[in-house]
Amino acid sequence: MKTGILTIAAGAALLLSACQSKTTTNGTDSTVVTTESTVTDTGMKAIKPAGPAPAWAPSIKPEMQAVIEKLASYGDKPIPELSAQQARKNHTPTDAVMDLMAENGIAKPVFNVDTMGKDIAVAGGMVHVRIYTPKTGKAAYPVIVYYHGGGFVIANLDVYDASANVLAHHTEAIVVSVAYRLAPENKFPTAHNDAYTAYEWVVNNAASIKGDAKKIAVAGESAGGNLAINTAIKARDKGFMLPTAILAVYPVAGSDMNTPSYLKNAAAKPLDKPMMMWFVKNYLNNMGEGKDPRINLIAANLKGLPMTTIITAEIDPLQSEGMMLADKLKAAGVTVDLKNYDGVTHEFFGMGAVVPQAMDAEKYAVSQLKKAFGM
């Protein structure tokens, strides 16, 4: 699940201040694990929460708490009590951030990006993609194939529009955001198949969208992070061109809902354990499919994958499996960077307009992709 929230104004990311963090290298230089502890003065307008920190998140950062409070203020029914169709009408953290921006006089960002839509053929139907192209006049750009979150059940390209804009604008790459088909109307592995087909389409048609076919990365958040990694695995298995890099933000990577972070964050917001159970029941044909390595990525064959960047959040049921995935990738010989952000929740990525840790995460993701592209 995700927000993909409006972020910093165009160019503001370049003013991000350095963060105070602790970095450790685990035995080799193939894996860098960073725990984000403090983000210093960013020049952002501070947004303060109305009440005390919630019992489920005593360490929550004030700006993150303000977003969660605003989301709760809408009074929507909990998603596990709704049908998928009803849940898609709930307010999102994107709405909360946009309202906080309006209430606090924070201007919407301006991105130097053009967008266009296109429908591509997939098995059994069509899938829409939104193509974000930098307006800098280059003959060819690197490409990022991006998959939104939402537990394979909810959300859409609009909810994640800001994440795509941020990556396109600051990486100076084309972003192809994929509206894979959602469950329960389209059960497992439809989203996975759509994700891979979209990647193949981009590779085969890169020149037609001003893309550099030799520099194509995959990226995604939550369920989309899972799809990004699966797409790389399938490309490897089919002998197709591997992505240049993978960016997975708090990816769905396991099937064990009794990990340390699930136990600690069972009641967290905006993603809690009951919601994850609801997503699984809607997407999978049966609960046994949770053991499929396409869902349970920590049990997948991860050898031969490209440079991978994983971002996790402290207050998130998925934190443990994201960290375990990084360990499994390292053991498989993959170059991995893992950065965990303290005091923030699932969905924080893209909230850079109001949450300093999100601003830093966006800058980090951009720098990792640019490094992979040789920029």
Major beta sheet, strand line-up:
1-2-10-9-8-7-5-6-4-3
The CATH architecture would be 3-Layer(aba) Sandwich
How many separate helices?
10
Approximately how much helix is present in the residues?
25-40%
The string of secondary-structure elements, in order, is EEHHHEEEHEHEHEHHEHEH
CATH class: Alpha Beta
Number of strands: 10
Structural class: alpha/beta
CATH fold-level assignment: Rossmann fold
Shape: globular
Strand content: 15-25%
Mean pLDDT: 90
Number of domains: 1
Which key terms come to mind for this protein?
375 residues; alpha/beta; Rossmann fold; 10-stranded mixed β-sheet; 10 helices; globular; disordered N terminus
Question: Nutshell version of this structure?
Answer:
The chain is of the alpha/beta class. It is built from ten helices and ten strands.
Structure description:
The protein has helices at 62-73, 84-87, 93-103, 161-171, 190-205, 223-238, 260-264, 273-283, 319-331, 356-373, and strands at residues 19-25, 31-39, 113-122, 125-134, 141-147, 174-179, 211-221, 246-249, 308-315, 336-345. With 375 residues, it is of the alpha/beta class. The protein has one domain: Rossmann fold (3-Layer(aba) Sandwich), CATH 3.40.50. Strand 7 (211-221), helix 6 (223-238) and strand 8 (246-249) form a beta-alpha-beta unit. The longest helix is centred in the C-terminal third of the chain and has 18 residues, at 356-373. The protein is globular. The two termini are 30 Å apart. Residues 1-21 form the signal peptide.
